[in-house]
């Protein structure tokens, strides 16, 4: 399985993520040409080699009207990376420079991204990242999300970073994206609102449910844009799995620290499609089959991986059911609550299991009866294929023949 792994030992910022992904790209110069032609107003993006602690990587520079973003803004007094996104977003009343800067709200950003010359997937991902940032800033500053204003100059810079990362991920096309826990940095930073603790409130809000830590580096290592990009794209934050690496990239920040200020990323193959999942189990002896079926269906709708029952003989010789719900660990609390609500149980057990799955794909094949979807699964040295039951059953009904006859015809193809 093609896996992308981010090592965030020195946090993450939009420009650093774009730089590291550019290093993994087969043709960085062609990609930069494409990125510079998608239609972000007044913006030019370039990449330079950068050396930190003896490691060579890539640094991204975004210029707006020929100047780097931080040269424009009088509000930015600290620069951990090429820019500090949390300064770009603030309430109108806080701005001392309204006469110098124009502003965009979320709908303006939506309009701008909607008109870029990029795929619908890139537009959808870029807007989802912006939504995370706007919601976080809204919570941090007590302003409705649609009233959050983005500094236009800094925002063109951030649009370049966010869109660039979304385009690179589309082109690299990993099956799964993983990352290490995120180092936030520590200390305080000055911004338009005053002096804020690190991580700044917006970053802290975005990183909820993401494993994070501080190694006491006195700087803002993870910015809101970096946090939002990770939150949107990364499926799981964990130690690096066993991975056969094809390519390694280094995306450099601007500042120098005792530790190399970079994000490292690996792209390669993980042999096993394995993950830790939660099993929630309870015994039931006083529910109707309809009520059990209703609870089962509801848990599936809410994201359970599997829900099943096993007949058991309980205390006092009562026949009952062992009710099992399998789910990803992040849904555990939700599933516990739903099981208590929709079953008669007064208690349940939790087991953590290692789940191995084959990689799955759905394809369509053309038959004399029309299109039939087939499921293909592969991995661990095996491959198996099976037509979708609903499609086969529909043909059998329509043609007035047996399922076996339909399958025989399909197997001839």
Topology record:
Layout: E1 2-7, H1 14-24, H2 28-35, E2 43-52, E3 55-64, E4 67-68, H3 69-72, E5 89-90, E6 103-104, H4 106-114, H5 120-141, E7 149-151, H6 152-172, E8 176-179, E9 182-183, E10 188-191, E11 194-197, H7 201-206, E12 212-213, H8 224-233, E13 236-237, E14 244-252, E15 262-269, E16 274-284, H9 289-301, E17 306-313, E18 319-328, H10 332-342, E19 349-356, E20 359-367, E21 370-379, E22 382-387, H11 389-399, H12 403-411
Parallel strand pairs: 1-8, 8-13, 9-12
Antiparallel strand pairs: 1-15, 2-3, 3-4, 5-7, 6-7, 10-11, 14-15, 16-18, 16-19, 17-18, 20-21, 21-22
Walk me through the structure.
It is a single chain. By secondary structure, this protein is α+β, with helices and mostly antiparallel strands. 33% of the residues lie in helices and 32% in strands. The chain contains 12 helices and 22 strands. The chain has helices at residues 14-24, 28-35, 69-72, 106-114, 120-141, 152-172, 201-206, 224-233, 289-301, 332-342, 389-399, 403-411; strands at residues 2-7, 43-52, 55-64, 67-68, 89-90, 103-104, 149-151, 176-179, 182-183, 188-191, 194-197, 212-213, 236-237, 244-252, 262-269, 274-284, 306-313, 319-328, 349-356, 359-367, 370-379, 382-387. A 5-stranded mixed sheet has the order 13-8-1-15-14. The chain has a 4-stranded antiparallel sheet with strand order 17-18-16-19, covered by helices on one side. A 3-stranded antiparallel sheet has the order 2-3-4. α11 crosses α12 (403-411).
């Amino acid at each position: 399985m093609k896996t992308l792994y981010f090592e965030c030992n020195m946090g993450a910022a939009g420009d650093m993520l774009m730089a590291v992904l550019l290093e993994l790209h087969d043709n960085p110069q062609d990609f930069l040409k494409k990125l510079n032609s998608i239609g972000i107003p007044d913006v030019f993006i370039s990449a330079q080699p950068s050396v930190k602690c003896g490691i060579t990587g890539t640094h991204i520079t975004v210029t707006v009207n020929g100047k780097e973003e931080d040269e424009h803004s009088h509000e930015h007094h600290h620069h951990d990376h090429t820019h500090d996104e949390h300064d770009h977003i603030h309430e109108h009343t806080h701005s001392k420079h309204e006469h110098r800067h124009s502003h965009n709200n979320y709908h303006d950003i939506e309009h701008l991204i909607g008109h870029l010359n990029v795929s619908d997937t890139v537009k959808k991902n870029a807007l989802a990242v912006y939504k995370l940032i706007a919601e976080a800033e809204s919570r941090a500053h007590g302003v409705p999300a649609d009233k959050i204003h983005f500094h236009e100059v800094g925002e063109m810079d951030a649009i370049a970073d966010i869109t660039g990362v979304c385009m690179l991920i589309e082109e690299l096309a990993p099956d799964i994206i993983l990352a290490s826990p995120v180092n936030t940095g520590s200390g305080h930073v000055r911004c338009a609102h005053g002096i804020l603790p690190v991580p700044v409130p917006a970053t802290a809000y975005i990183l909820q449910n993401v494993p994070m830590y501080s190694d006491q580096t006195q700087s803002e290592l993870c910015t809101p844009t970096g946090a939002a990009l990770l939150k949107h794209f990364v499926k799981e934050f964990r130690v690096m799995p066993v991975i056969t690496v094809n390519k390694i990239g280094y995306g450099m920040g601007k500042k120098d620290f005792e530790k190399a200020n970079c994000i490292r990323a690996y792209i390669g193959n993980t042999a096993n499609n394995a993950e830790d999942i939660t099993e929630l189990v309870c015994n039931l002896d006083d529910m109707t089959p309809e009520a059990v079926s209703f609870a089962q269906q509801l848990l599936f709708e809410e994201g359970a991986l599997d829900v099943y029952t096993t007949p058991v003989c309980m205390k006092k010789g009562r026949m009952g059911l062992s009710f099992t719900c399998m789910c990803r660990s992040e849904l555990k609390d939700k599933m516990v609550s739903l099981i208590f609500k929709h079953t008669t149980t007064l208690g349940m057990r939790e087991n953590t299991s290692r789940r191995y799955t084959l990689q799955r794909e759905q394809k369509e094949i053309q038959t004399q009866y029309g299109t039939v979807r087939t499921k293909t699964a592969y991995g661990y040295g095996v491959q198996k294929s099976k037509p979708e039951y609903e499609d086969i059953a529909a043909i059998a009904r329509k043609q007035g023949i047996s399922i076996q006859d339909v399958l025989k015809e399909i197997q001839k193809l």
